[in-house]
Specification:
60s Ribosomal Protein L30, Chain: A, 4-stranded mixed beta sheet, alpha+beta, 4 helices
Length: 136
């Protein structure tokens, strides 16, 4: 299992920008806040010596430690985190995530504790032929 502590992410609303004028008008792009967060995630992965999971199917558990007592929606957090971990090459693509849990911790701290584990066949599970085994 991989465990990594990440900084508080930008909201989805500040992560992306769509210019209204100029040569890039109408194109959705990563904002400065989004680029900065990606760099911070990449640094955290490197500094915490996080092993890569390659192309394995994974389960991701995100413990959310709120920065303060304001009300926040949990569904606003995973996109920046998962994209940042993809950019940091923890996995090849976040489509490898088959199980995702995001939960609010009683602990404060303004950070996220992300646990990633590879999924495998459950113990005692029998696969009838090798073609089915490749699906796992």
């Amino acid at each position: 299992m991989v465990v990594i502590e990440l900084p508080w992410p930008p909201s989805v609303n500040t992560m992306w920008r769509t210019p209204r004028t100029g040569p890039l008008a109408g194109r959705t792009m990563l904002s400065k806040e989004g680029r900065d967060y990606r760099k911070a995630v990449e640094q955290a992965v490197m500094l915490q010596c996080v092993p890569k999971v390659g192309d394995a199917k994974v389960a991701v558990d995100i413990e959310v430690r709120m920065p303060d007592k304001r009300r926040r929606d949990l569904d606003n957090l995973p996109k920046a985190v998962l994209d940042g971990l993809t950019h940091a090459a923890l996995w090849h693509d976040d489509s490898q995530i088959d199980d995702l849990r995001v939960w609010r911790s009683d602990r404060m701290g303004g950070c996220l504790v992300v646990k990633v584990r590879e999924l495998s066949l459950p113990q005692g599970c029998l696969v009838e032929d090798e073609a089915d085994a490749d699906a796992f």
